[in-house]
């Protein structure tokens, strides 16, 4: 009997242990970014008013106070800190054997021990504890809801974490020139960066669209340069340049005292603020204040630009005028006093040399310095300023256009064009570099299916695109890889009109950047990241940040397949169900489950949404697929991007990059041939076209429609020509262009002749007008 009792107790113990293990497996402990090692324990450590931190010195106490201040505000109690003590509930222990920024965190139900070699290591361990705490730790005030605060279990799970970063440079650019972020919002972004263990804030302070930092020696930089004309209702690319005498509106700037506050706040969170003073281009705001610093051949009004600037964007600092260098040195002297950062960014991108080519001062400079061309003149310009900054004990960073000429000595190159190839070119010449490829790391791009997104431009950089980015390519040499300092995302703000717009574009993609910058590739796991990100997003929500939920939305792909249409519905989250209807009703958690592509042979409207645990997670996709005799027919074209879009039954939106508009690499002459499979009586053909004035998307100058019975001999049956006024109308709109046919034909060919270059008066003068069609409709 005694043995049976013992056996029963053993079985109960095993069941209990198994239950604990199952809990750990079903509720994994996860953090963003993912640590090097994370081993779950058993139980929880609970914080209370009696909790005591034991720290070795005041420097450690400084790091701890940031966490205890959160408890004071959100929980209504403040854990105690004992300096110089080894006895406490939470002990910080210096371990010189650990690398800089690394830490080891051991949490048991009774004690927390943090090992690190430096202050930043302790700080990052505390940030991990912060993420493991209930999201309410980010709350504004416990007194606002004392009953709720009292009900919260301020506990963290038992776990052992060993951690260190992959890259030393983990950065975010925030553009405050195009949209000025108020100081309070910027500080909140900095705090979120710290939670994600990002350590570099690239502060884009000046551009054509605004000068955002007070320079006491040159007060007009902010008196004039921080103001610009308003263009209500116009998106950034559509805004026309200012006219002389047109009233301007204050858009904001930071006083030097505010700059010091921002730098100090970031410094407390181990974030280095790297200022960028743009040169020689993107300088209209500065030149509006001090126009004599432009080339003397400039014969147009210089004002702060409200948009792209068009032909005014070629107004840049004069490289032949010594006063320019005196001015920039004076500006940098004040900047250097405000920013203790190791690095200073000097710009160097997108400098159009229009005026340099005819400026007598610039040409004299080239002759004096024996420079072969204007690109080398830019190299001289940047090198001269760089040497001044380097002489002050700082290092310099510049955009990758610097590789177009001889790269100034010791310049660090920030690779942005395409996938950052130019920066790799610089590395092959021995320069250190940072990767921020626009195709992946520019957060101004759409972050989800464009049907649901606020207006911006270019294509998509989804949460998964950012997460999947691997900066070190397989074809790099070991030497090239050794020169990579790290990675950066860029938050450009052309389409931001409120701080909430910046938040929406930043979050949650900023957490994906943190994974790229901190976590080694072999530790990355998309599903585990999503679970950790969901927890981090709860912290964002508690801070009052409305993050984007684009990751829950559905992207459709409709493709002609042998006379039918194949409809794919994709969501980047693998942990949701896609439910759909085709009877006009709204999808619910009980609607048909999407498991494979849908095949259509006629007009249908598909409505679909993502669901989890019975709750709708994303917005409802409403996809009308309209059938006509051209739908799903064979169609061919040379140089087209996805010609099947013209016969897939889906109309494009007002966003020409929404994946439903067909375009061509060359736009002087484009053509496509449609095969109706058998001779058909065709009364009319309609062609869907889009105009997006700000992005130079315009209808062709002329369109011809030809028919054939054998795909060899074609005969013109209809056509239309358009005037310059009709082609280059301002605005963004769709237009159906009809052609009367009245013929029997099997093959129909459409030939469109491009409108050429945008005129001088256009917001994109001299740029080729691009053609976009979304559907061919045959009646």
Question: Describe it for me?
Answer:
This protein has 779 residues and is an alpha/beta fold. It has five domains: 29 residues; 133 residues, Chitobiase, domain 2, CATH 3.30.379.10; 374 residues, Glycosidases (TIM Barrel, Alpha-Beta Barrel), CATH 3.20.20; 73 residues, Sandwich (Immunoglobulin-like), CATH 2.60.40; 145 residues, Sandwich (Jelly Rolls). Helices cover 26% and strands 26% of the residues. The chain contains 19 helices and 35 strands. The strands form seven sheets. An eight-stranded parallel β-sheet has the order 14-9-8-19-18-17-16-15. Strands 28, 29, 30, 31, 32, 33, 34 and 35 form an eight-stranded antiparallel β-sheet that branches. It has a seven-stranded mixed β-sheet with strand order 1-7-5-6-4-2-3, covered by helices on one side. β20 and β21 form a beta hairpin. α2 packs parallel to α3 and α9 packs parallel to α11. The chain is globular. The protein starts with a helix and ends with a strand. 47% of the residues are buried. The N terminus is likely disordered.
Write out key terms for the chains shown.
779 residues; alpha/beta; Chitobiase, domain 2; TIM Barrel; 5 domains; 8-stranded parallel β-sheet; 8-stranded antiparallel β-sheet; globular; disordered N terminus
Task: Produce a short descriptive summary.
The strands form 7 sheets. An 8-stranded parallel beta sheet has the order 14-9-8-19-18-17-16-15. By secondary structure, it is of the alpha/beta class. The longest helix is centred in the N-terminal third of the chain and has 25 residues, at 2-26.
């Amino acid at each position: 009997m005694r043995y049976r009792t013992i056996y029963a107790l053993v079985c109960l113990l095993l069941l209990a242990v198994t239950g604990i293990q199952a809990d750990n497996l079903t509720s994994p402990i996860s953090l963003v970014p993912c640590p090097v090692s994370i081993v779950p324990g058993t139980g929880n450590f609970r914080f209370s008013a009696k909790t005591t931190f034991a720290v070795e010195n005041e420097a450690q106490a400084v790091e701890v106070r940031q966490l205890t201040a959160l408890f004071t505000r959100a929980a209504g109690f403040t854990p105690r800190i004992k300096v110089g003590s080894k006895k406490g509930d939470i002990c910080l222990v210096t371990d010189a054997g650990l690398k800089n920024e690394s830490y080891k965190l051991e949490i048991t139900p009774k004690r927390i021990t943090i090992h690190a070699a430096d202050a930043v290591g302790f700080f990052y361990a505390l940030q991990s504890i912060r993420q493991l705490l209930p999201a309410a730790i980010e709350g504004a005030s416990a007194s606002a809801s004392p009953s709720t605060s009292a009900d919260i279990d301020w506990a963290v799970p038992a776990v052992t974490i060993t951690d260190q970063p992959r890259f030393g440079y983990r950065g975010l650019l925030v553009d405050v020139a195009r949209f000025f972020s108020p100081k309070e919002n910027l500080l909140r972004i900095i705090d979120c960066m710290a939670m994600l263990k990002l350590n570099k804030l690239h502060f884009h302070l000046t551009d054509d669209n605004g000068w955002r930092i007070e320079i006491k020696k040159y007060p007009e930089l902010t008196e004039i340069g921080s103001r610009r004309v308003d263009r209500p209702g116009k998106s950034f690319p559509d805004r026309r340049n200012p006219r002389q005498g047109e009233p301007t509106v204050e858009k904001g700037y930071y006083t030097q005292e505010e700059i010091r506050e921002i730098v100090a706040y970031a410094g407390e969170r181990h974030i280095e603020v790297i200022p960028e003073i743009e040169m020689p281009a993107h300088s209209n705001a500065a030149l509006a204040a001090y126009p004599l610093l432009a080339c003397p051949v400039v014969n147009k009004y210089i004002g702060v630009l409200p948009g792209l600037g068009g032909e005014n964007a070629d107004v840049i600092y004069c490289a032949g005028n010594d006063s320019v260098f005196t001015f920039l040195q004076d500006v940098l002297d004040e900047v250097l006093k405000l920013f203790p950062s190791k690095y200073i960014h000097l710009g160097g991108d997108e400098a159009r040399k229009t005026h340099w080519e005819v400026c007598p001062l610039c040409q004299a400079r080239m002759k004096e310095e024996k420079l072969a061309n204007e690109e080398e003149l830019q190299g001289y310009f940047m090198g001269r300023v760089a040497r001044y900054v380097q002489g002050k004990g700082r290092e310099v960073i510049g955009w990758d256009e610097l590789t177009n000429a001889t790269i100034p000595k010791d310049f660090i190159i920030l690779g942005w064009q395409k996938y950052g190839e130019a920066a790799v070119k610089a590395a092959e010449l021995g320069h250190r570099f940072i990767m921020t490829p626009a195709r992946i790391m520019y957060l101004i791009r759409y972050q989800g299916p464009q049907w649901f997104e606020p207006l911006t431009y270019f294509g998509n950089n989804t949460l998964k695109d950012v997460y999947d980015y691997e900066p070190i390519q397989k074809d790099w040499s070991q030497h090239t890889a050794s020169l990579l300092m790290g990675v950066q995302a860029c938050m450009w703000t052309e389409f931001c009109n409120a701080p909430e717009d910046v938040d929406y574009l930043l979050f949650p993609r900023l957490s994906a950047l943190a994974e790229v910058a901190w976590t080694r590739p072999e530790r990355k796991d998309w599903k585990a990241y999503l679970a950790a990100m969901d927890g981090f997003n709860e912290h964002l929500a508690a801070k009052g940040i409305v993050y984007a939920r684009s990751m829950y939305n559905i992207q459709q792909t409709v493709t002609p397949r042998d006379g039918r249409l194949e409809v794919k519905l994709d969501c980047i989250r693998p942990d949701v169900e896609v439910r759909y209807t085709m009877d006009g009703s709204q999808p619910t958690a009980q609607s048909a489950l999407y498991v494979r592509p849908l095949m259509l042979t006629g007009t249908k409207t598909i409505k679909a949404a993502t669901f989890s645990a019975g709750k709708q997670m994303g917005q409802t996709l409403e996809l009308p697929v309209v059938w006509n005799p051209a739908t799903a027919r064979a169609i061919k074209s040379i140089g087209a991007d996805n010609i099947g879009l013209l016969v897939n039954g889906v109309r494009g939106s007002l966003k020409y990059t929404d994946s439903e508009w067909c375009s061509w690499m060359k736009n002087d002459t484009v053509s496509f041939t449609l095969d109706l499979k058998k001779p058909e009586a065709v009364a009319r053909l309609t062609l869907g076209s889009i105009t997006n004035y700000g992005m130079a998307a315009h209808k062709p100058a002329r369109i011809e429609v030809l028919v054939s019975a054998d795909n060899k001999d074609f005969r013109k049956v209809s056509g239309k020509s358009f005037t310059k006024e009709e082609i280059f109308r301002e605005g963004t709109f769709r237009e159906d262009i009809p052609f009367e046919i009245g013929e029997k034909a099997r093959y129909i060919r459409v030939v469109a002749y491009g409108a050429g270059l945008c005129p001088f008066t256009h917001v994109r003068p001299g740029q080729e007008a691009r053609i976009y069609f979304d559907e061919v409709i045959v009646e």
